[in-house]
Every structure is written in C-alpha cells, then in structure tokens.
C-alpha cells in the first residue's frame, strides 16, 4: 500500500474527516504560535494523493493520527536513524553549535 492510501486508511479508521483534521492542525498552529503546523484540507488531499509532505505537516499528521513522528516519517521513506551515516565527520572544537553568551545555562532562545 502506498503512503497516501495508508494515511487515508488510518484517517478513515479513526473516523476523522479532512475538515476535522484541518481544525485540529489549526489548534496546533495556534497553541505553538507557528502557522506552519496548519494543514489545509487541500494539503491533506495532496498527501493522500502521494505528494511528499513537509516535515512540519508530518508532525501535525502524527498528532491526530496518533502515530509516533519517526514512524510516520518512515512511511514517506525517511528513517531518522539513517541521518548519522550521511553526516560529514565533525571536529568538535571547530564545529560546535550551541548556545554561547549569557543564556549558556538556560534553554536556548529560538525565537
């Protein structure tokens, strides 16, 4: 079964309508303050018709389909555990990416 058909089958088994998923994703977008989490009805139709979704849309799908995010990514051919094998070797002294400055011991401010 292809990924789009599988997503549609799960949605229908859970008695979720596209408009309901649209509302749920809007709630996620509002709760996070990030409009990118919103999954429009047309975007869901595209995903169910085999379009590759944005990873942020996969997050919204995983929430309302109750499927772990990394499991749902695998449906679309992405295995998070494979990422390490494609990463270039790093030099920790040169390539360190982390917070520096007055917030070093606090959560990093992303926004």
Written description of the protein model:
The protein is 54% helix and 0% strand. The chain is mostly helical. The chain is globular and about 50 Å long. The model has no long low-confidence stretch (mean pLDDT 82).
Please give the largest β-sheet: none
Tell me, briefly, the overall form. globular
CATH architecture level-2 label of the domain at 3-78: Orthogonal Bundle
| CATH fold descriptor of the domain at 3-78 | 434 Repressor (Amino-terminal Domain)
Number of E-state strands: 0
Give a concise summary.
54% of the residues lie in helices and 0% in strands. The protein has seven helices and no strands. The chain has helices at 3-13, 18-32, 41-48, 55-65, 69-75, 83-86, 92-95.
Give the helices and strands, then pairings.
Layout: H1 3-13, H2 18-32, H3 41-48, H4 55-65, H5 69-75, H6 83-86, H7 92-95
Question: What key attributes describe this structure?
Answer:
111 residues, mainly alpha, 434 Repressor (Amino-terminal Domain), 7 helices
